[in-house]
Design brief:
93 residues; mainly beta; two-stranded antiparallel sheet; ATP/GTP-binding protein
């Protein structure tokens, strides 16, 4: 019989391709952020930071207002998201 290395009292880790959303400060208030892996990226999106396309298979960031219902989600290149504070203030497009 194969040996189990995981203890029974340890909870299972989530196996989702995306990390849990985290809360960060945005220009208009708190923003939920989720990092998407390359395997989880299946569609083409337009990055509001550089106005270029995010191709399928490209790891990127999804951000939306904390008080919203998710309809305002925006997909960002990771570099564009990290540089959002150095861009013109209030421009989320």
């Amino acid at each position: 019989m194969p040996r189990k290395n995981r203890r029974r009292d340890q909870p299972r880790r989530p196996t989702s391709g995306a990390q849990d959303p985290s809360l960060v400060d945005g220009p208009g208030g708190p923003v939920r952020v989720r990092r998407i892996t390359g395997e989880g990226a299946e569609k083409i999106y337009r990055c509001p930071g550089c106005d270029l396309e995010i191709q399928p298979g490209t790891p990127h960031v999804v951000a939306w207002a904390d008080d919203g219902d998710g309809d305002d989600r925006r997909h960002w290149h990771t570099g564009c998201w990290n540089a959002r504070d150095r861009r013109r203030p209030g421009r989320w497009r």
